[in-house]
Write a structure and sequence with these properties.
mainly alpha; Dna Ligase, domain 1; 4 domains; two-stranded antiparallel sheet; 6 strands
């Protein structure tokens, strides 16, 4: 009798557990169905706000879905992946897109298959000019002057390690050596390519900066193999280009100055560029004192041999071309006439001193 009662109690417990599990399964099923159903719908059918989205070259469907969710174009990256796979959608293209939260998944997929544009599209609400030879901080000034973005936020982004890693993942050949360098003030110094950039409605500060880095990648990419053949990293090549940018004006002089720098590096001599000292001091000066050239900074190439931590500004493509194609010579010194801009070259230090004296500099 007692055993039968125990069986009844056990059966009731089992039935209760089964019932609870079934109820929970039902709740989960309803929740899942609702979540998937709503995720297959536009994120907000009434929101026509344009959202600028950049899909990097080589992005997988999973990565594109994550980007769309992060930019608040779709509700769920998981459901988007499910939708794409069940419909066998393929051939998504890289580029810039103008999406809206009101778009259906079908509409978003069709745009991704047609392909984006190389630059953000839409009516420009501002234009930011990055001049040749300007520093990261000067780019910050230009952005703050022309857009709603502040210089403080821009410089904060320049120090954002997570963002730097994101960029390195997108542009590994371009940025790997920069991210590996020590004592760098700004990892993107030298990688914000000189050009005019349109700021369109819906564009974020990250997207604006990324467009500058993407431009640098497309412009520098043809020279990556040559840079490697010369035994240089991209960081070293752009560092030299940034010095050449400010030291020489003509293409001929830039190539000759490049040759001088390589001669000094081969001789284990400091490059002794005034540009490096001014960057170390973080100020522009018409003439430097002995105290200036002795400043304790890894960027001071008067007292440090080699290339230093990294670039001193954002150079033009002409200066990088001078790095990969320098003029061979025996020159170890050069000096420019501050009035005419003419550059004079010397093989010995005595010749260099004599030329300086004749110029009264």
């Amino acid at each position: 009798m007692l055993r039968n009662d125990e069986k009844k109690v056990a059966n009731k417990i089992i039935l209760w557990i089964v019932g609870v599990i079934a109820f929970l399964a039902l709740i989960v099923g309803i929740f899942t169905y609702h979540y998937v159903h709503t995720s297959l719908q536009p994120l907000d059918k009434n929101d026509k706000t344009e959202v600028v989205v950049n899909v990097p070259i080589g992005s997988s469907t999973k990565e594109i879905a994550a980007i769309l969710q992060k930019e608040k174009v779709i509700k769920s990256a998981t459901v988007f992946n499910y939708f794409v796979k069940t419909h066998s959608y393929t051939d998504f293209q890289a580029g810039y897109y103008n999406f809206q939260p009101s778009m259906t998944l079908e509409h978003i997929v069709s745009l991704l298959q047609k392909g984006g544009t190389s630059e953000p599209q839409g009516t420009a609400i501002a234009k930011v000019l990055v001049k040749e030879g300007v520093t990261v901080e000067q780019v910050g000034d230009a952005i703050a002057k022309k857009t709603k973005f502040s210089k403080k936020d821009f410089l904060s982004l320049m120090k954002d390690k997570t963002y730097m890693k994101e960029l390195e993942t997108k542009y590994p050949e371009l940025l790997k050596s920069s991210l590996a360098s020590e004592d760098v003030r700004y990892n993107l110094e030298g990688y914000l390519f000189p050009a005019t950039y349109n700021v369109v409605k819906g564009m974020t500060l990250k997207q604006l900066v990324t467009s500058m880095v993407e431009k640098a990648n497309s412009e520098y990419a043809p020279y990556f193999s040559t840079i490697k053949e010369k035994g240089l990293t991209v960081q070293q090549a752009i560092t030299l280009a940034s010095l050449i940018e400010r030291e020489g004006v003509t293409e001929k002089d830039r190539k000759k100055i490049s040759g001088v720098f390589f001669n000094r590096i081969d001789a284990n001599m400091p490059l002794q560029s005034d540009i490096s000292v001014m960057y170390a001091l973080n100020k522009h000066k018409h003439s430097l004192t002995n105290k200036d050239t002795s400043v304790d900074s890894p960027y001071n190439l008067y007292i440090n041999a080699g290339y230093g931590p990294g670039p001193f500004n954002n150079p033009s493509i002409s200066s990088l071309q001078a790095v990969v194609n320098p003029t061979d010579s025996n020159y170890l010194y050069f000096v420019a006439n501050l009035k005419t801009g003419k550059v004079y070259y010397s093989k010995t230090y005595d010749q260099h001193l004599s030329k300086n004296a004749s110029l009264g500099q």
